[in-house]
């Protein structure tokens, strides 16, 4: 939170308090900078894993659909729809959360034993069976790709928020503290100089009074 010099009393207590708060905010700024570096590290490492699974999924997806469409042409859409309608929707996916430097990211764990096996009649196109096997083998990579994509998005959102707070500290909060501390210090210095001058004047007057009193006393004794 920024401070306004016009609304802060220029006292020594406030000056000490502001200097203490300024030092604490500087430490917070250092922690935020370290957090930004850690988030960037996680984003880079996660992006490498994401690119690996993306290349794998995209490459194998092309082969998968090529094989599937080949079987679709051989069997016809009606028969393929009939085959697929007989497959129960029984696939189980276990979801969870992990924390990366205060950022909650999802985890996906497929239960491959729950994936239903389509029942294809004898004489059907082997390309349909091959495409099913390819999809089953590719499914963990697809889930990993989705997991890393969501992780990157959440890390980027946290990085944006961290950078926003750093900018607020650098361009609003810290400058306001510096300005207020300088203002109070200048006012206290001015008061100190005024007090010093006032004390010198009082001392001079006291000396003059003592000298005058001494002269009067000497005249009385004469």
Outline the structure in words.
By secondary structure, this protein is mainly alpha-helical. Helices cover about 75% and strands about 10% of the residues. The protein is built from three helices and two strands. The chain has a two-stranded antiparallel sheet with strand order 1-2. Strand 1 and strand 2 (about 105-110) form a beta hairpin. Helix 1 (about 10-75) runs antiparallel to helix 3. It is rod-shaped, with a radius of gyration of 39 Å. The chain starts with 11 loop residues before the first helix and ends with a helix.
Write a short abstract of this structure.
The protein has 222 residues and is mostly helical.
Largest sheet: 2 strands, antiparallel
Strand content: 5-15%
| Helical content (DSSP H or I, runs of 4+) | over 70%
What is the succession of H and E elements?
HHEEH
Q: State mean pLDDT (0 to 100 scale).
A: 86
Instruction: Determine the oligomeric state from the structure.
Output: single chain
The count of β-strands is 2
Query: What gross morphology would you assign?
Result: rod-shaped
List segments where confidence is low: pLDDT < 50 over at least 5 consecutive residues. Answer: none
The number of helical segments is: 3
Class computed from helices, strands and strand pairing: mainly alpha
Report, as a whole number of angstroms, the end-to-end distance: 74 Å
The strand line-up of the biggest sheet is 1-2
Spatial extent as radius of gyration:
39 Å
């Amino acid at each position: 939170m920024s401070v306004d010099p016009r609304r802060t009393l220029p006292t020594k207590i406030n000056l000490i308090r502001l200097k203490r708060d300024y030092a604490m905010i500087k430490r917070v700024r250092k922690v935020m900078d370290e957090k930004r570096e850690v988030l960037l590290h996680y984003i880079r490492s996660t992006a490498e894993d994401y690119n690996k699974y993306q290349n794998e999924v995209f490459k194998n997806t092309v082969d998968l659909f090529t094989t599937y469409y080949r079987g679709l042409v051989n069997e016809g859409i009606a028969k393929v729809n009939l085959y697929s309608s007989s497959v129960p929707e029984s696939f189980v996916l276990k979801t969870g959360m992990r924390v990366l430097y205060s950022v909650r990211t999802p985890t996906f764990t497929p239960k491959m034993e729950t994936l239903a096996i389509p029942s294809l009649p004898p004489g059907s196109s082997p390309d349909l069976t091959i495409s099913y096997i390819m999809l089953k083998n590719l499914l963990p990579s697809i889930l990993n790709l989705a997991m890393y994509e969501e992780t990157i998005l959440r890390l980027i959102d946290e990085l944006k928020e961290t950078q926003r707070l750093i900018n607020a500290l650098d361009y609003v909060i810290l400058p306001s503290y510096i300005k207020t501390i300088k203002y109070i210090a200048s006012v206290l210095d001015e008061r100190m100089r005024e007090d010093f001058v006032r004390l010198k004047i009082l001392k001079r007057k006291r000396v003059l009074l003592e000298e005058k009193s001494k002269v009067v006393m000497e005249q009385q004794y004469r």
